[in-house]
Each structure stands twice: as structure tokens, then as C-alpha cells.
Amino acid sequence: MLRSCAANACHRYISYLEEQKLAAKTTVKRKNYQDGEEIENLKKKFKQIAKDIASLTRSADELAQKAEDHGDMTLIASSNALLRTAKEKTTQLDNLKKTIASLECP
Questions:
Q1: Could you give the angle at the alpha carbon of 76 between the alpha carbons of 48 and 87, nearest 5°?
Q2: Scanning 1, 12, 24, 93, which has the fewest C-beta atoms within 10 Å of its C-beta?
Q3: Coil, strand or helix: which one is 71?
Q4: How far, in Å, CA of 24 to CA of 12, rounded?
């Protein structure tokens, strides 16, 4: 009687451990998938910010050239504002790069 109870308890415990292993594996797979999705979204955001920086810099250069040609100081102010925004976005880009690196290499 005692042996059969102990055997049943042992089998139930082993099946419980197997269920826990399976649950842990599915949780890890789900987490890896979510991290992969997050990394892809961050990479898309990274590319978009890089495009924005290039566009802002190009526009600032064009405004500076126009200001030089026409002698208009308001265009220089606009150019400087665009360059300041590009610099802020560069800081965002660096932070985003660090975030992506930390997620890729745990």
C-alpha cells in the first residue's frame, strides 16, 4: 500500500516537472520572439531617424547656401535651427544604437 502511494506520488511529481519544463521552454520562445520583434522595430526606427538627420542636414546646407548667395540672415537662423534639431536626433540615434546592442547581446 505504502509503496503504491509513493510510486504514484513519484509519477505525479515527474509529470509535474515535465510540465514545468515545457512551460519554461514556451515562455523562453515567446520572449525571444518578442525581443526579435522589438529589435526589428528599433532598427526601423533607427533607419528612419538616420534618414531624418540626412534630410535635416541637407536642408540646412541648402539654406546656408541661399543665405550666403542672398545675404539673408534669417535663412542662417533657420539653417542653425535645422542643424540643432539634427544634433538632437543624432543623440537619439546614439541612444537607440546602444539599446539595440544591449538587446542583441544579452
A1: 30
A2: 1
A3: coil
A4: 18
Q: What is the span of the domain harbouring residue 13? A: 2-104
Please compute, for residue 87, the number of CA atoms within 13 A of its CA located in the half-sphere on the CB side: 7
**Burial bucket for residue 79 (CB in 10 Å: 0-12, 13-18, 19+):** buried
Angle at which helices 73-104 and 2-70 pack, to 10 degrees? 160
Q: What is the rounded distance in angstroms from the CA atom of residue 94 to the CA atom of residue 47?
A: 12
| CA 105 to each of CA 20, 39, 47: distance values in angstroms, whole numbers, following the listed order | 27, 11, 20
Kindly list the distances between the CA atom of residue 79 and the CA atoms of 56, 85, 89, 102, in Å, as whole numbers in the listed order: 9, 10, 15, 35
3-state secondary structure of 24: helix
